[in-house]
Amino acid sequence: MILSQINLCSDVLMTRCSVNVMLPQRKPADPHDNFHSPFRVLYLLHGYSDDQTAWQRWTSIERYAEGLNLAVVMPSAQNSFYTDMAHGGKFFTFLTEELPILLHELFPLSSARTDTFVAGLSMGGYGAFKMALSRPDRYAAAASLSGAVDIAEVIKRNNQPDNPAWLEQMHNIFGDLSKVPGGPHDLFNLAKKVSLSGNKPRLFQYCGSDDFLYQDNLRLRDFIGPLGFDYTYEETPGGHTWDHWDRTIQRVLDWLALQ
Questions:
Q1: CA-CA-CA-CA dihedral for 46, 52, 54, 59, to nearest 10
Q2: C-alpha distance across the termini of the chain, in Å
Q3: Per residue in 63-93, pLDDT tens?
Q4: Is it the case that residue 33 has pLDDT exceeding 60?
Q5: Is 204 exposed, middle or buried (0-12, 13-18, 19+ CB in 10 A)?
Q6: What confidence category does residue 194 fall into, taking pLDDT thresholds of 50, 70 and 90?
Q7: How far apart are CA 226 and CA 48, in angstroms?
Q8: Is the pLDDT of residue 208 over 80?
Q9: Which residues pair with 74 in a beta bridge?
Q10: What domains lie within the chain, and their CATH numbers?
């Protein structure tokens, strides 16, 4: 695999930002390798307080993606919850609109929906489902690992008098917090809307049974189950830790059926 560490200027974010991209290394001498075929793309999203290096530092994602004709794109989205913030950067637009255009100018990436996937952990698990359910025309599949999937409950649970910084940050991200349930940031609402369309992405959801987000994940599991998605849910004993995500990202790659 080839690793590219890219610093680019985003017109949408109005600042410079960083993206790590792993690409398969072409082998023109291999008769089974079409040197001119574009790579499938997995956007792999980090969690709260992390950055574009997290997946490479804490998992063996490069080794797992070897031989899959898959480019792995790991952007930095700060603590934005992959959202066009009410008071801050438009990270959702950057990731779903601007970044793909910039990357397609640099690398031989497929633009086909069938070749485009998104996955993430914790905050990134929320972001992966939000991207796929908001833009089902763009992503064929999405995976959430220990995701903050019930964002209204996450906000409510952490809205404590001794934690004013959290409330201020949530206001900066989502605006009027009373409008989050049932709105465009609510995965339950997005899943219901997409279920009525003919363009549903495949969904993979994982959470450890000792994770502080476990009950949130169960609520989304029970909600999505009857909606007619091609949907896989898995859980294991354990908490909100990298050893589970390192193992589960291998399951996600198998589930994508990229061989």
A1: 90
A2: 16
A3: 999 999 999 999 999 999 999 999 999 999 9
A4: no
A5: buried
A6: very high
A7: 30
A8: yes
A9: 20
A10: 2-256 (3.40.50.1820)
Chain center to CA of 203: 11
Mean pLDDT of the chain: 94
From residue 74, give the alpha-carbon distance in Å to each of 14, 109, 155. Answer: 19, 14, 26
Joined together, the tokens standing for residue 232 give 């896989």
Give the residue carrying structure tokens 């589960």: 248
Q: What are phi and psi of 19, to 5 degrees?
A: -140, 130
Query: 164 or 252: whose pLDDT is higher?
Result: 252
The amino acid occupying position 188 is F
- For 130-179, give the DSSP string: HHHHH-TTT-SEEEEES----HHHHHHHH--TT-HHHHHHHHHHHSSGGG
The label of the residue with tokens 């206001």 reads: 171
